[in-house]
Design a protein that fits this description.
globular, two-stranded antiparallel ribbon, alpha/beta, 14 helices, single chain, 10 strands, four-stranded parallel beta sheet
Length: 398
C-alpha cells in the first residue's frame, strides 16, 4: 500500500515504470472494462463523495484492469485513482501501470498543445454562447452538455465579464432516457419563468453501426433528429405557454438527399451507412421534423431552421472520418458560423410563405424549390414520431 500511495502522489515515476515493466510478462486476469472513464461518465454524490453511478458503456470491452485505472487517474487524479483501485483489490503493479500510462497520455496531450499540434476541435455551440453572453440584451441560459464539468471550465476560461447567467445541466442526446431527465431538470430550473428561445444545436457523424442502446435508429439519427424532436415534445406545454422561437441548427447537406425512399433503411441501427451519406440523411429528417413542428405550432411558436455554413475544424467529425476540408471558397470561420446561427434568434423578416423556414449562412431565406423534398407532408408526418412511440421504443415508463 505504501508503494501505491507513493506512486499516486507522484513521488517516483521511474519506480512506476520499473514496476510496470517488471510485470510485463506476468498474466493478469482480464476483466470487463468501461474503457472510457472520464468526468462526464462518473456521478459523485456531492454530499458524501461516494460514487453513485457510471454511464455510457458503449466502449465496454474485455481487457487489462490498468486501462480503467488509467482513465480514473486522468479524471480524478492519480492519488484518488490509486485509492479506488487498491480498495478494489488490485496490487501495486497493476495500479502503477494505470497511473503511469495516464501520465504518458497527459504528457502527450500537453506536448501537442505546447507545439500547436492540438487537434481538439473548436465548438460552434460554445462560440455562439460566448457571443450571446457578450450581447447587450440580458439572457438566462439553461445549457445541456454531455461534458458538464468541461463546459463549466470553458465558461470559467472566458476572458470577459458577463452579467448573464448560464446553468449547465447534463444532456447526452444519444440517450433518450437522459434527454427526458434533462427536460425535467430544465422545467424545474425554470419554474414559472418562460422560454424565449429553444436553440437545438447538436450533431454527430458516427457511421450507422449497431446502436449500443438497442434503439431502432443509429446513434447519429438519434442525436441529430429523434432526441431533438423528443425534447420539443417534452417541453411542449411550457413552449405553448411561452410562445418562444424554436431554432433547429440545420445544414445545407439536407438538400443533397436525392432519394428520400432510401433514408429509412439508411438510418437504421447497424445499417452500415458511411458518415458522408449518413449525415445528410439525418439533417434531411431533422428538417422534416422542423417543418412538422412549424405546422403543429402555427400561431404559437416561430420555427426556424438555420445553417451555420461550411465551417471546418469543429467537433462535428468526432467519432468518424467525416471532415469538412479547409480552404473551400465558401468556408466560414467558427465565429462567422456562430453569427449565422445566432441570426436565427433575432430575424423578424419572415417570408410570407410559411414553408420557407430555412435561413442560410449568408442571411437569405431559401426558396421552396431548394428544400422541396422536405415539404412533403406525408414524409413530415412519417418522421414526426409521437412522444409515446419514442418512449415505448426507449423503454421509458411514465
Amino acid at each position: 500500500m505504501h508503494n501505491i500511495t507513493t506512486l499516486a502522489a507522484g513521488v517516483d515515476v521511474d519506480e512506476a515504470l520499473r514496476l510496470s515493466e517488471e510485470q510485463e510478462d506476468v498474466f493478469h486476469e482480464l476483466i470487463l472494462l468501461h474503457a472510457d472513464l472520464k468526468g462526464e461518465h462518473i456521478f459523485i454524490d456531492p454530499n458524501t463523495g461516494r460514487l453513485t453511478g457510471v454511464r455510457d458503456w458503449s466502449d465496454a470491452c474485455i481487457g487489462h484492469p490498468s486501462v480503467d485505472i488509467h482513465g480514473l487517474a486522468i479524471s480524478v487524479g492519480a492519488t484518488a485513482a490509486a485509492r479506488i483501485a487498491s480498495a478494489a483489490g488490485y496490487n501495486e503493479h497493476i495500479v502503477a501501470r494505470g497511473v503511469f500510462t495516464a501520465r504518458c497520455d497527459s504528457i502527450i496531450c500537453l506536448d501537442a498543445i505546447l507545439h500547436e499540434d492540438d487537434d481538439t476541435p473548436e465548438w460552434l455551440g460554445l462560440e455562439a454562447l460566448k457571443q450571446l453572453l457578450q450581447a447587450p440584451q440580458p439572457y438566462r441560459v439553461v445549457l445541456g452538455a454531455r461534458n458538464t464539468s468541461g463546459m463549466e471550465q470553458s465558461l470559467r476560461d472566458i476572458n470577459f465579464e458577463s452579467a448573464n447567467k448560464v446553468e449547465v445541466l447534463p444532456l447526452d442526446l444519444a440517450d433518450l432516457k437522459g434527454t427526458k431527465k434533462f427536460a425535467e431538470a430544465t422545467l424545474e430550473k425554470l419554474g414559472d419563468a418562460k422560454i424565449d428561445y429553444l436553440f437545438l444545436n447538436a450533431a454527430i457523424t458516427v457511421p450507422a453501426v449497431a446502436n449500443p442502446r438497442g434503439y431502432r435508429w443509429c446513434e447519429s439519427a438519434v442525436v441529430n433528429h429523434v432526441a431533438q424532436f423528443y425534447l420539443v415534445h417534452l417541453l411542449r406545454e411550457k413552449l405553448v405557454a411561452s410562445k418562444p422561437r424554436i431554432v433547429f441548427i440545420s445544414s445545407g447537406a439536407a438538400t443533397s438527399v436525392s432519394d428520400p425512399s432510401v433514408v429509412e433503411d439508411g438510418l437504421k441501427s447497424g445499417a452500415g451507412t458511411e458518415s458522408r451519406t449518413l449525415y445528410p440523411m439525418t439533417k434531411f429528417v431533422q428538417l422534416l421534423g422542423a417543418h412538422w413542428w412549424r405546422r403543429e405550432l402555427t400561431g404559437v411558436c416561430d420555427v426556424v431552421a438555420v445553417s451555420p455554413g461550411l465551417v471546418p475544424g469543429t467537433g462535428l467529425a468526432r467519432g468518424s472520418n467525416f471532415q469538412i476540408p479547409s480552404g473551400l471558397p465558401d468556408a466560414k470561420t467558427i465565429p462567422q458560423g456562430a453569427q449565422s446561427m445566432l441570426a436565427a434568434l433575432t430575424r423578424s423578416d419572415f417570408p410570407e410563405d410559411a414553408d420557407r423556414i430555412f435561413l442560410t449562412s449568408w442571411g437569405e431565406w431559401w426558396d421552396k424549390s431548394v428544400i422541396e423534398k422536405t415539404l412533403d407532408k406525408e414524409l413530415q408526418n412519417k418522421w414526426a414520431f409521437s412522444k409515446e412511440d419514442i418512449e415505448k421504443e426507449a423503454g421509458i415508463s411514465g
